[in-house]
Amino acid sequence: MNKISIIIIPFIVMFIVIYGYKKKVNIYDSFLNGAKEGLISTFNIFPPLIAMVFAINIFLKSNFIEFALGFLNPIFKNLNIPLDILPMALLRPISGSSTLVIMNNIFLEFGPDSYIGRLASIIQGCTDTTFYVMSLYFGSVKILKTRYALKVGLFADFCGIVASFIIANLLF
Amino acid sequence: MVNIIWGILIIIGVGYGFLSGNINAINNEIIESGKKGLDMILEMLPILVIWMGLMKIAEDSGLLKKIANIFYPILKRLFPKVPKGNKALGYIASNVAVNMMGLGSAATPFGLKAMEELQKINPNKKEASDAMITFLVLNTSGVTLIPTTVISLRMLAHSTEPTAIILPAILATTCASIAGLTLDYLIRRKK
User: Which of A172, B33, B91, B141 is the most buried (most CB within 10 A)?
Assistant: First the structure.
């Protein structure tokens, strides 16, 4: 499986270039034009990205989530959900890199093939970071009103995480 | 909405930091977070520049349009307000395809271009259009066939079956996508 993902990018690159030749496009000029656009896009993303990293990191560093989790603990104990997975489930929509760190800690402590290790892998693999994608994509085209986007995004994340628990319970 | 979330994150973070006596960590974070943001941009910049360059070749040669046409029957239902042959559909198709291979960072440039094209046909430039929200849901809950980062971390941790989580992850991500797109569809129809 991993081999597929290793060859896919070089293949796409080669295919795009050959296709460009075949259609008699000035591929070098096209590349430069696109690269310039990429530079401008990155430039536009920078302020909203910094703003989000700033707010999210302050929130994460305050340990407020652990505080808020405290009263939830007994409920999850009854549902047979391992407590160590909770911060990951809650943080998944907010910060992809922080859940990656939590997942790795779980691997080191319980092993990647333990129940909780597999559960963590599924949760990490099943959704993307909604807050991050939202701030990046909307920020890049200067959208201020996001309407119902967050609601739907978080609902999808919630369903994905609940599904992860159920599937892990059934399969492992 | 972003206004509210952004403010709340900071107020809760700093407020709770004061209450819990953890304000030192918050102080450090305020000083260092700018650099973390810059690091992220610096990591993305070269990838974005190279992929946007390649995508421009794909666009000029008509390849993007071709990809969009293949996915058009499905995308038409998800994005009823995007006219046929619009470049946005090509970028959306590429974004989804690359995401499926578990190459999230390589998918981002396609996503950004898709947003740019959707913004061009957006009647209210400050407000997210229906199509943008559908695309966002498709993207954040997006079906990942091969979660490459997870598999590589499992390998590093000496898993005996690093790929055992692929099928369960596909199932879970499919649930997320269906749930998200259904809610999105219901909200759109209600209006």
Answer: B141
In a domain, B28, yes or no: yes
Mutate one of B57, B155, B189 to test the A interface: name it (highest A CB count within 10 A). B57
Q: State the total domains in chain B.
A: 1
Q: Where are the alpha helices (DSSP H) in A23-95?
A: 27-61, 64-69, 73-78, 86-91
Residues in chain B closer than 8 A to A111 (CB atoms)? 157, 159
C-beta atoms of A159 and B180 within 8 A: yes
- Say what the ipTM of the complex is: 0.76
List of chain A residues whose C-beta atoms are within 8 Å of the C-beta of residue B139? 128, 133, 137
| pTM of the complete model | 0.76
- Cα atoms in the Cβ-side hemisphere of radius 13 Å centred on B24: 1
Contact criterion met (CB below 8 Å) for A58 and B5 = no
Distance CA B126, CA A48 (A): 15
Is residue B178 in some structural domain? Answer: no
Nearest-Cα distance to chain B for A118, in Å, is 7
Residue B80 inside a domain? The answer is: no
Digit-coded pLDDT (tens) for A93-118:
877 766 877 888 889 889 999 999 99
Terminal C-alpha separation, chain B = 19
Q: Which of A132, A112, A116 shows the shortest CA–CA distance to A56?
A: A132
